[in-house]
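I had to read the description of the data format several times before I understood it. The format is easy to grasp once an entry is in front of the reader. For illustration, here is how one protein appears when written out as sequence plus structure tokens:
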Amino acid sequence: MRVVKSPSFNDKLLLILKYIAINNPANAKKYKKDLDKKIYALVNMPFKNRQSTHYDDYSTRDLIFKGYTVPYIIDDDVIIIIDIFKWEDR
């Protein structure tokens, strides 16, 4: 199984990291590193997170990480990371 990040996810993550880096660039790097660990751990257990409340599909899941929701789709042997957003943005 492999992980694919959508361009939309990458763009929004970059905005979040820039915002965090304003006050502390080291925290932005740590945030990205920790998020990547969580995302790539999905390869071992892709269905361990809850079914998405934003999408009506069994194979779409929500990874919750430090107040942000990262929805992803499990499709055969690929995990597609769709988006990242904060609960108050939706």
